Amino acid sequence: MISLSNSEKGTVSSTAATKRLARAMMVSGGEFSLLLACCNSVPRQQQVLNLLTEFSSADIHEVLLSPAADKLYTAITNEIGTTQPEALMVRGLESVVAINQLIISTNIMRDEFRKQFRFPLVLWINDEILCKLVWLAPDFKDWAASTIRFDVANNQLFESKQQAISA
Fold first, then answer.
1. Assign residue 2 a region: left if phi > 0, alpha if psi is -120 to 50, beta otherwise?
2. List of domains in the chain
3. Which residues does 52 contact at the CB level (< 8 Å), separation at least 6?
4. How far apart are CA 23 and CA 79, in angstroms?
């Protein structure tokens, strides 16, 4: 029997999640779809994005939100103009100062996303933003398929910390 170490399990899990995200973007086929990529580590997000380019041939645009952003739809349209990328990644939600207002306005404007965007929209979120989406933008959140997670499980994180302490 082959046993994987926690770091190997994390890598296998991350690779599988990255492939799921690439597949979900491809299946969209020029239609709007909402994809939630949950990762509590910003550097980890960048690692996944680098890996994603290996699994997807799509022309993926990226929008990094300003901490002063107050409307997601406006921030995206200001960034992309009239272009319709094959996929769009939105990062920086965790740094938005007025995040509750941004999420509430997103829920109010949800129909505009579907009307105007003909591409998969990937929101990079952390657990806190995910909870806020559930409570403040339930209608918008319901458009998303299951959330794709990129974090190490809590027990693996705990075991890694324990190994580091005992080393």
1. beta
2. 32-158 (3.40.50.300)
3. 18, 21, 22, 60
4. 25
pLDDT (tens, 9 = 90+) of the chain, 167 residues, equals 333 334 444 455 678 888 899 888 888 878 999 999 999 988 888 888 888 887 777 788 999 999 999 999 999 999 999 999 999 999 999 999 999 999 999 999 999 999 999 999 999 999 999 999 999 999 999 999 879 998 755 444 444 334 434 44
pTM for the whole thing? Answer: 0.82
Q: What single-letter amino acid sits at 64?
A: L
Nearest to 45 by CA among 147, 160, 132, 149: 149
State the residue for tokens 């509590």.
40
First to last CA, the chain: 26
How far apart are the C-alpha atoms of 40 and 82, rounded to whole Å? 31
